[in-house]
Amino acid sequence: MSANGNRSGNGPAQEPVILMRDVHKAFGAKQVLRGVDLDVGQRESVVIIGGSGTGKSVTLKCILGLLEPDQGSIKVDGEEVVGLTGQARDRINAKFGMLFQGAALFDSLRIWENVAFGLIQGRGMARAEAKKIAIEKMGMVGLGKHVADLFPAELSAGMQKRCGLARAIAADPEIIFFDEPTTGLDPIMSDVINDLIVQSVRDVGCSALTITHDMASARRIADRVAMLYMGQIIWAGPVDQIDRSGNEYLDQFIHGRPEGPIQLQVRAL
Amino acid sequence: MNFVALIGRAFLGFLATAGRLVLFALAGVSHITRPPFYYRLIWRQMVDIGYYSLPVVGLTGLFAGMVLALQSYTGFARFSAEGAVATVVVLSMTRELGPVLAGLMVAGRIGASIAAEIGTMRVTEQIDALTTLATNPFKYLVAPRLFAGITMLPILVLVADIIGIFGGYVVSVYKLDFNAPNYLKRSWEFLEVVDVVSGLVKASVFGFLVTLMGCYQGYNSKRGAQGVGAATTNAVVSSSILILIFNYIITELFFSK
Question: Residue ranges of the domains in chain B?
Answer without folding.
Answer: 39-251
